[in-house]
Amino acid sequence: MLGTVINVAAVVAGSALGVSVGSRLPERIRETVLHGLGLLTLLVGLQMALKTENILIVMGAVLTGGILGEVFRIHDRLERLGVFLQMKLAVGSAQSFGQGFVMSSLVFCIGPMAILGSIQDGLTGDYSLLSIKSILDGFASIAFAAGMGWGVSLAAVTVLIYQGSLTLFAGSFSELLTPPMITEMTATGGLIILGIAFRLLKLMDLRLANFLPALAIAPFIVSIIPLVRGLF
To answer: What is the sign, positive or negative, of the torsion defined by CA atoms of 38, 41, 47, 53?
Structure first.
């Protein structure tokens, strides 16, 4: 849960800065920070991906998960959900307070980094990915709060409930997953994180949410390998 607590603190601090001095922060500084975070995310993704002990497992999980994601159109559905909620709860409201709360909540919670980071924190206690997300959300909240005010700070509550629930849920399964399962799940998540880095660096615009099923497929493949070997 520590990663989520850091994330919540970053949103609150960023909102306070945004209300006070956010409009004075030059665009070039924000862009440089995002590029730096993109490079750091690239490093974290590589470190995680290279932990694999069998690259075929990761390949099978990513390909199968990506196909399932496309079949069920996970990425498109998440995007439509975000647009729908924004239209219902923010657009049409005359108050920028409500707009700030809804829009920032969507940005902070709908995305692979929130899901992957929370799962990683719950399974292994490693909150490095959520730490990077915290910095990203902190700068985003500065920009949002500069234009929409204190409503952005309330998104911290959304982050706490959403990511905290995912972390606790993942932690409840930690005893059911063997070390090899966690290793390959981590490596698979690392590849998805590399995709996040590519987006931050504006190198590729990947439909990353479609790869999320791969996180469940990786440990499943690990579990059936002994059964398959027993048949031959």
So the answer is: negative
Q: Transcribe 67-88 into DSSP letters.
A: HHHHHHTHHHHHHHHHHHHHHH
pTM above 0.70, yes or no: yes
- The one-letter code for the residue type at 43 is L
Composition of the chain by helix, strand, coil, percent to 5 = 85, 0, 15
Q: Is the pLDDT of residue 217 over 90?
A: yes
The four Cα atoms 85, 87, 89, 91 give a dihedral, to 10 degrees, of 150
* 181 pLDDT more than 70: yes
Q: What is the DSSP letter of 204?
A: -
Does residue 93 have a pLDDT over 60? no
Spatial distance between the Cα atoms of 51 and 186, rounded to a whole number of angstroms: 8
pLDDT for 83 beyond 90: no
- Cα angle vertex 184, ends 200, 209, to 5°? 40
3-state secondary structure 158-191: HHHHHHHHHHHHHHHCCCCCCHHHHHHHHHHHHH
Q: What is the pLDDT of residues 98-107, one digit of tens each?
A: 667 777 887 7
CA dist 142 and 189 (Å) reads 28
C-alpha closest to that of 1 among 159, 110, 215, 184:
159
